[in-house]
Each structure stands twice: as structure tokens, then as C-alpha cells.
């Protein structure tokens, strides 16, 4: 239902047609597979130096669905707790998945937006600069609350810190709870907030 509504809105606003080059959307991979199981977030290291212009860009395609994940029922709940409900929102807000902030002498990488829709996700991995993608465990949904996706005071904070100016790019890979996957890459300038 949501996909239909978003399609109608996109067509009404002039979207939905093929781009002028006829190739397709370059920001959406045509095929995405699952990641190898990355390390825990505690192992996230400071980012490596930014790639030089001569460094080939590495593809960040997931290879396998992390072990133990099983596709969940996709019956819409009206509470945005399934991939069927949150995938259209995350696709429409791809540019807001993460943010980088230079604050108090450090770089902060925020994933607040993704955590706000985490109930439709099964796994998330993040890579800063050229560092390998690493698993960032999602907080559980708060099913007993009116807003299951809420980030509560007792939940861990949805950010990582690095040395000031160290974060030049961020890659994100998502596994939805229907076991479909999505990826996005961001440069510092595209997601830098005041």
C-alpha cells in the first residue's frame, strides 16, 4: 500500500519516469547482496586516512545475509515495525540516513534517522572512510510503548566519535527484516550538519 502511495506521489511530482540518460538511478544499486558478518561496534576503529584520487573505489556489496536471521512476517501493523512499512520511508529519505557533525573538537557520526525506523530492520553495518564495514547492533523495538521505534534515555546513543576532521566518507548497509538489503554512501560535505 505504501509503495503505491509513494509511486503516485512521485508521478504527481514529476518523478517516476526514467532519467534523461535512460540508465536508471545511479544512487540505487540494481543488485545488492548480503554482508559477511562484521565485527561488533566496540571494535570500530578510528577511520583511516581519506582515499587519494588514485585509489579505486571499493564496491560495498553485501555478500550473505548474516547467520541466524530469518525473514519476519510482513503483515502491516500500522506501527512501522516491518520492512514493508519502513522501506518506502527509508528509500525516500536516503539522504538523511546518517549525519556528520564537527562538535567540541570531535567528529560525530549519527545514525539517529536509521534508529528511528529500526523496527523494520534486522541488521545494520557501517564503514567510515576506507575502514571495513562493521556491524552496529540495533536497539530492540519497544513494543510495549506507543512508539516502538522511539529512542529512550536508557538506550545507547546513536552516534560514534572520531578525531576532528577524520570522517571523510561513510558507507551504510541495511538488512531489512524481510531479508532484502540496501546500501548508501555519503561524503562528509553531503551530510555535514552544524
**Major sheet attributes:** 4 strands, mixed
Q: Low-confidence runs (pLDDT<50, min 5 residues)? A: 4-63
Overall average pLDDT: 75
Helix content: 10-25%
Instruction: Please count the beta strands (DSSP E, at least 2 residues each).
Output: 8
Structural class based on helices, strands and sheet pairing: alpha+beta
What does this structure look like?
The structure is a single chain. The chain is an alpha+beta fold and 194 residues long. The protein has one domain. Helices cover 15% and strands 22% of the residues. It has four helices and eight strands, in the order H-H-E-E-H-E-E-E-E-E-H-E. The strands form two sheets. The protein has a four-stranded mixed β-sheet. A four-stranded antiparallel β-sheet has the order 4-3-6-7. A hairpin with a 4-residue loop joins strand 6 (169-176) and strand 7 (181-187). The longest helix is centred in the N-terminal third of the chain and has 11 residues, at 2-12. The radius of gyration is 17 Å and the shape is globular. Residues 19-55 are annotated as: Disordered. This is SH3 domain-containing protein. It comes from Sulfitobacter indolifex HEL-45. Residues 35-52 have a biased composition (Low complexity).
